[in-house]
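tokens incoming
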């Protein structure tokens, strides 16, 4: 596919992102210093650069300037833990494809990377190569049977095995009896809601991945779900392609653990 250079002094973040990119058949180069980033850039001519603006030595802006001087058309996606309006405006003026926070979910980051590659004439596979995850079992928990069936059928068409239940109590019983690899969990349900289910799973030291589904705009509640360990919170009405990306990413990261 494409050769991608990750320039970041954050080893954990770089490794995690590299694992995801490799699953899409991309060749990945990693540079942890500005000097290494420029050396790899000049020696290998990557198709895309993922530039952490807080790279070791604080040279992110200088690296971007030198890249633009040598190869003005190579796409660059800039990342930072904190992105001020001034910094984003300045970086965008230098022609980057996007400016993203490093804390964003991997499925969102991957979508931006695919867009940058496609715009530069490097179309990519939207599906990773992870055979082990295709046999995964996913439990869909939603008190609206129509939604549960729709999501379940979509995932089955993607090659996953699925089970559905309509309440938090049923979900806990199913997880105890036959643990799935991943749970898609509605937040608002009669009786035990999704956040209560998460608390129960945490109390039982259950390490199953959980992705929340919700139509709620209650930001404190959504933050609570993330603080309790939910991998992501997906909004309703459901975007099935977004569900597919989030499921794939969480399963793949689980396979790397």
């Amino acid at each position: 596919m494409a050769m991608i250079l990750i320039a970041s002094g954050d080893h954990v973040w770089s490794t995690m992102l590299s694992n995801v990119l490799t699953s899409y058949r991309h060749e990945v180069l990693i540079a942890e210093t500005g000097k290494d980033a420029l050396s790899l850039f000049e020696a290998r001519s990557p198709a895309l650069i993922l530039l952490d603006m807080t790279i070791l030595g604080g040279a992110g802006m200088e690296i971007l300037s030198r890249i633009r001087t040598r190869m003005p058309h190579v796409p660059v996606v800039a990342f930072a833990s904190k992105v001020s309006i001034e910094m984003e405006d300045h970086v965008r003026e230098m022609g980057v494809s996007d400016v993203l926070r490093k804390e964003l979910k991997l499925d969102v980051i991957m979508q931006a990377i695919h867009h940058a590659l496609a715009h530069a004439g490097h179309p990519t596979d939207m599906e990773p190569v992870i055979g082990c995850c295709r046999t995964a079992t996913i439990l869909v928990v939603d008190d609206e049977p129509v939604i549960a069936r729709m999501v379940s059928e979509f995932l089955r068409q993607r090659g996953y095995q699925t089970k559905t239940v309509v309440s938090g109590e049923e979900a806990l019983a199913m997880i105890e009896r036959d643990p799935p690899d991943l749970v898609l969990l509605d937040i608002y349900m009669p009786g035990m809601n999704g956040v209560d289910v998460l608390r129960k799973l945490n109390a039982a030291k259950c390490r199953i991945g959980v992705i929340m589904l919700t139509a709620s705009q209650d930001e404190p509640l959504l933050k609570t779900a993330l603080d309790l360990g939910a991998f992501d919170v997906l909004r309703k009405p459901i975007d099935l392609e977004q569900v597919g990306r989030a499921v794939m990413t969480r399963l793949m990261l689980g396979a790397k653990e």
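note: The chain has ten helices and ten strands.
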